[in-house]
Amino acid sequence: MYSQGLLKQDTAAVESEEFLAAFQDRIDAEEKIEPNDRMPAAYRKTLVRQIGQHAHSEIVGMLPEGNWITRAPTLKRKAALLAKVQDEGGHGLYLYAAAETLGVSREKMTGELLAGTAKYSSIFNYPTLSWADIGAIGWLVDGAAIMNQIPLCRCSYGPYARAMIRICREESFHQRQGFEIMTRLSQGSSEQKSMAQDALDRWWWPSLMMFGPHDAASRHSEQSMKWKIKRFTNDSLRQKFIDAIVPQAEYLQLKIPDPELKWDPERNDGAGGYAHGPIDWDEFRRVLKGQGPMARERLRARREAWETGAWVREAALAHADKRDRQRAQVA
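Now predict its structure.
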């Protein structure tokens, strides 16, 4: 899909005012920027940071649900959850490949993740305590991810935009799977409905945090939007998410855990929307810095997977080397 031969591209070109203006003109004209195109170093750095964090989030995001595969209530649920976790691993690989076109190796990005110096979505540092959490993750977490990621299909950087098309299609199935689980639970016994409500109570606020800090506190949003890496602000995406989820919660007869949630006819330029209570940004920053309930466990699991999987990587490289030698002999 992408060429690893791009890892040694020249990024030291002089960035004159004329070059920067011409680059912005291409962005404004909705042209896609491709790996071999000249681009500002800051544009490249922003993409590496964002795509890297996105890829890490997909890989770490396999863990909260992965430990429920063997505990899912039916064989059908096991198979569906296994397929979903496999999808998330594939998403991470697509995104690492897209980042490689910007001159950063997958090994370097993985090393930063394992060292704890790379960030990933704070949502994956929370525990999954019941089967209802798997439904809440699909409904809320994947729902928030879709809200964030659909605009990325129009990202100005071509490889990232193209990778997101397939990722969003698969994420839509994940969201439906989660909502279906929550529907079954909310229509079940009183114990099942209570379990669904408990999961909503615990995942609601972390899901809102997924969109990032308020616009006024976001360091990267303005420039990312100018470059059309992002298309919408954090707050606008969060508002769209809330407006979409509240009616779904009402259908499920579940209560959003926000006593200040109410309809505001003045929101969305007079079209109306839901006003919500304050988000605990102190918690968001703590979890993002690696102080979440499951932060140590998540990184430990990734390190163990990397170490125990070393023989697979070595075998794959040996096989590729053998195949290359055979081809060279035939030639």
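Strands lie at 262-264, 273-275.
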